[in-house]
Request: fold
Amino acid sequence: EPEVTQTPSHQVTQMGQEVILRCVPISNHLYFYWYRQILGQKVEFLVSFYNNEISEKSEIFDDQFSVERPDGSNFTLKIRSTKLEDSAMYFCASRKYVGNQPQHFGDGTRLSIL
Amino acid sequence: SQQGEEDPQALSIQEGENATMNCSYKTSINNLQWYRQNSGRGLVHLILIRSNEREKHSGRLRVTLDTSKKSSSLLITASRAADTASYFCATDASNTGKLIFGQGTTLQVKP
Reply:
Protein backbone atom coordinates (compact mmCIF):
# COMPACT_ATOMS: atom_id res chain seq x y z
CA GLU A 1 0.00 0.00 0.00
CA PRO A 2 1.37 3.46 -0.87
CA GLU A 3 2.82 5.40 2.04
CA VAL A 4 3.79 8.93 2.93
CA THR A 5 7.51 8.99 3.62
CA GLN A 6 9.38 11.57 5.64
CA THR A 7 13.08 12.27 5.96
CA PRO A 8 15.06 12.52 8.09
CA SER A 9 13.51 10.57 10.94
CA HIS A 10 15.46 12.65 13.44
CA GLN A 11 17.04 16.07 12.94
CA VAL A 12 19.21 17.80 15.52
CA THR A 13 19.89 21.49 14.85
CA GLN A 14 21.41 24.42 16.67
CA MET A 15 19.05 27.23 17.60
CA GLY A 16 18.98 29.89 14.91
CA GLN A 17 19.82 27.49 12.10
CA GLU A 18 17.58 26.76 9.16
CA VAL A 19 16.10 23.31 8.77
CA ILE A 20 14.24 21.63 5.93
CA LEU A 21 11.96 18.69 6.58
CA ARG A 22 11.12 16.55 3.60
CA CYS A 23 8.07 14.55 2.68
CA VAL A 24 7.04 12.44 -0.26
CA PRO A 25 3.23 12.27 -0.31
CA ILE A 26 1.31 9.47 -1.94
CA SER A 27 1.70 9.94 -5.67
CA ASN A 28 -1.88 10.58 -6.79
CA HIS A 29 -2.81 12.74 -3.81
CA LEU A 30 -3.59 16.40 -4.34
CA TYR A 31 -3.83 17.87 -0.83
CA PHE A 32 -0.87 18.12 1.51
CA TYR A 33 -0.53 19.05 5.14
CA TRP A 34 2.00 19.62 7.88
CA TYR A 35 1.22 19.05 11.55
CA ARG A 36 3.39 19.12 14.62
CA GLN A 37 3.23 17.40 17.99
CA ILE A 38 5.18 18.77 20.90
CA LEU A 39 6.17 15.98 23.28
CA GLY A 40 3.23 14.90 25.40
CA GLN A 41 0.80 17.24 23.66
CA LYS A 42 -1.80 16.90 20.95
CA VAL A 43 -1.22 17.06 17.22
CA GLU A 44 -1.53 20.63 15.92
CA PHE A 45 -2.33 21.73 12.37
CA LEU A 46 0.29 23.94 10.72
CA VAL A 47 -0.58 24.36 7.07
CA SER A 48 -2.50 22.93 4.15
CA PHE A 49 -1.34 23.09 0.54
CA TYR A 50 -3.18 22.57 -2.72
CA ASN A 51 -2.51 23.47 -6.33
CA ASN A 52 0.94 24.81 -5.47
CA GLU A 53 -0.22 27.28 -2.89
CA ILE A 54 -1.09 27.47 0.78
CA SER A 55 -4.83 27.02 1.26
CA GLU A 56 -4.89 27.51 5.01
CA LYS A 57 -2.40 28.09 7.80
CA SER A 58 -2.60 28.23 11.56
CA GLU A 59 -1.39 30.92 13.93
CA ILE A 60 1.67 28.77 14.60
CA PHE A 61 2.71 29.01 10.94
CA ASP A 62 4.35 32.41 11.12
CA ASP A 63 6.95 34.03 8.88
CA GLN A 64 9.71 31.66 9.94
CA PHE A 65 7.86 28.77 8.29
CA SER A 66 7.46 28.10 4.60
CA VAL A 67 6.35 25.18 2.45
CA GLU A 68 7.23 24.22 -1.05
CA ARG A 69 6.51 21.54 -3.59
CA PRO A 70 9.71 21.86 -5.59
CA ASP A 71 8.94 19.03 -7.99
CA GLY A 72 6.18 16.53 -8.67
CA SER A 73 6.94 14.35 -5.68
CA ASN A 74 8.43 16.26 -2.73
CA PHE A 75 6.73 18.52 -0.22
CA THR A 76 9.01 20.41 2.16
CA LEU A 77 8.65 22.41 5.34
CA LYS A 78 11.36 24.98 6.00
CA ILE A 79 11.94 26.63 9.34
CA ARG A 80 14.17 29.62 8.76
CA SER A 81 15.59 30.45 12.17
CA THR A 82 14.82 27.69 14.60
CA LYS A 83 13.89 28.32 18.22
CA LEU A 84 13.99 25.98 21.18
CA GLU A 85 10.19 25.78 21.15
CA ASP A 86 10.24 24.40 17.61
CA SER A 87 11.38 21.09 19.05
CA ALA A 88 8.60 18.63 18.17
CA MET A 89 7.55 15.79 15.93
CA TYR A 90 6.55 17.11 12.53
CA PHE A 91 4.10 15.05 10.51
CA CYS A 92 3.35 15.32 6.84
CA ALA A 93 0.00 14.09 5.55
CA SER A 94 -1.71 13.83 2.21
CA ARG A 95 -5.13 13.01 0.88
CA LYS A 96 -6.50 12.43 -2.57
CA TYR A 97 -9.54 14.67 -2.36
CA VAL A 98 -11.07 17.01 0.17
CA GLY A 99 -14.37 15.86 1.56
CA ASN A 100 -14.96 12.63 3.37
CA GLN A 101 -11.53 11.18 2.88
CA PRO A 102 -8.95 10.17 5.47
CA GLN A 103 -5.52 11.71 5.61
CA HIS A 104 -2.48 9.49 5.31
CA PHE A 105 0.36 10.38 7.65
CA GLY A 106 4.08 9.79 7.51
CA ASP A 107 6.01 8.52 10.49
CA GLY A 108 7.23 12.01 11.26
CA THR A 109 10.52 13.82 11.76
CA ARG A 110 11.64 14.39 15.30
CA LEU A 111 13.20 17.85 15.38
CA SER A 112 15.44 18.64 18.33
CA ILE A 113 16.70 22.21 18.71
CA LEU A 114 19.73 22.66 20.93
CA SER B 1 -11.89 26.72 19.10
CA GLN B 2 -13.04 23.58 17.40
CA GLN B 3 -11.00 21.32 19.63
CA GLY B 4 -11.72 17.71 20.22
CA GLU B 5 -11.55 16.86 23.86
CA GLU B 6 -11.21 13.25 24.80
CA ASP B 7 -11.82 11.23 27.84
CA PRO B 8 -10.50 9.36 29.57
CA GLN B 9 -6.94 10.62 29.17
CA ALA B 10 -5.67 7.18 30.09
CA LEU B 11 -7.30 3.78 30.17
CA SER B 12 -5.87 0.48 31.38
CA ILE B 13 -7.74 -2.76 30.77
CA GLN B 14 -7.16 -6.49 30.57
CA GLU B 15 -6.90 -8.29 27.28
CA GLY B 16 -10.31 -9.41 26.11
CA GLU B 17 -12.15 -6.48 27.69
CA ASN B 18 -13.77 -3.69 25.71
CA ALA B 19 -12.32 -0.17 25.62
CA THR B 20 -14.46 2.92 25.15
CA MET B 21 -13.06 6.35 24.41
CA ASN B 22 -15.08 9.52 24.09
CA CYS B 23 -14.53 12.70 22.15
CA SER B 24 -16.33 16.04 22.25
CA TYR B 25 -16.01 18.97 19.90
CA LYS B 26 -17.41 22.46 19.61
CA THR B 27 -18.45 23.34 16.06
CA SER B 28 -20.30 21.73 13.19
CA ILE B 29 -18.21 19.28 11.22
CA ASN B 30 -17.98 17.54 7.84
CA ASN B 31 -16.74 14.35 9.43
CA LEU B 32 -14.94 12.98 12.44
CA GLN B 33 -12.01 10.63 12.23
CA TRP B 34 -10.21 8.37 14.68
CA TYR B 35 -6.48 7.77 14.49
CA ARG B 36 -4.13 5.52 16.36
CA GLN B 37 -0.54 6.36 17.27
CA ASN B 38 1.95 3.84 18.53
CA SER B 39 4.74 5.31 20.62
CA GLY B 40 7.12 7.34 18.49
CA ARG B 41 5.30 6.56 15.28
CA GLY B 42 2.94 8.33 12.89
CA LEU B 43 -0.82 8.44 12.94
CA VAL B 44 -2.73 5.58 11.42
CA HIS B 45 -6.24 6.22 10.21
CA LEU B 46 -8.80 3.89 11.79
CA ILE B 47 -12.24 5.05 10.78
CA LEU B 48 -14.10 8.05 9.40
CA ILE B 49 -17.71 8.86 10.21
CA ARG B 50 -19.59 11.47 8.24
CA SER B 51 -21.74 14.10 9.90
CA ASN B 52 -24.91 12.44 8.59
CA GLU B 53 -23.97 9.02 9.98
CA ARG B 54 -24.69 7.85 13.49
CA GLU B 55 -22.75 4.64 13.73
CA LYS B 56 -20.03 2.86 11.82
CA HIS B 57 -18.24 -0.45 12.23
CA SER B 58 -14.88 -1.68 11.07
CA GLY B 59 -13.74 -5.04 12.38
CA ARG B 60 -13.50 -4.75 16.18
CA LEU B 61 -14.06 -0.99 16.03
CA ARG B 62 -17.39 0.72 16.51
CA VAL B 63 -17.75 4.47 16.26
CA THR B 64 -20.81 6.52 17.11
CA LEU B 65 -21.48 10.14 16.38
CA ASP B 66 -24.04 12.37 18.04
CA THR B 67 -24.03 15.72 16.29
CA SER B 68 -26.66 17.15 18.64
CA LYS B 69 -24.30 16.59 21.56
CA LYS B 70 -21.19 17.16 19.46
CA SER B 71 -19.67 13.96 20.68
CA SER B 72 -18.31 10.68 19.40
CA SER B 73 -17.20 7.44 20.93
CA LEU B 74 -14.80 4.74 19.83
CA LEU B 75 -15.37 1.22 21.11
CA ILE B 76 -12.70 -1.43 20.68
CA THR B 77 -14.13 -4.85 21.42
CA ALA B 78 -12.19 -7.88 22.62
CA SER B 79 -9.03 -5.85 23.11
CA ARG B 80 -5.58 -7.28 22.50
CA ALA B 81 -2.19 -6.31 23.90
CA ALA B 82 -1.34 -5.05 20.39
CA ASP B 83 -4.10 -2.43 20.74
CA THR B 84 -1.91 -0.61 23.25
CA ALA B 85 -1.46 2.86 21.75
CA SER B 86 -2.76 6.41 21.86
CA TYR B 87 -6.06 7.10 20.15
CA PHE B 88 -7.03 10.49 18.80
CA CYS B 89 -10.22 11.89 17.42
CA ALA B 90 -9.93 14.57 14.76
CA THR B 91 -12.60 16.78 13.28
CA ASP B 92 -12.72 17.98 9.70
CA ALA B 93 -14.76 21.15 9.41
CA SER B 94 -13.06 23.30 6.83
CA ASN B 95 -13.01 23.29 3.05
CA THR B 96 -9.26 22.68 3.10
CA GLY B 97 -9.57 19.39 4.92
CA LYS B 98 -7.43 20.39 7.88
CA LEU B 99 -7.89 18.20 10.94
CA ILE B 100 -8.24 19.43 14.50
CA PHE B 101 -7.10 16.78 16.94
CA GLY B 102 -8.15 16.03 20.47
CA GLN B 103 -5.75 15.43 23.33
CA GLY B 104 -5.96 11.69 22.90
CA THR B 105 -6.55 8.67 25.09
CA THR B 106 -3.64 6.46 26.03
CA LEU B 107 -4.83 2.87 26.09
CA GLN B 108 -2.89 0.12 27.80
CA VAL B 109 -4.08 -3.44 27.29
CA LYS B 110 -2.49 -5.85 29.72
CA PRO B 111 -1.94 -9.42 28.55
Chain B has a mean pLDDT of 93. Chain B touches chain A through 24 residues (CB under 8 Å). The longest strand of chain B covers residues 43-50.
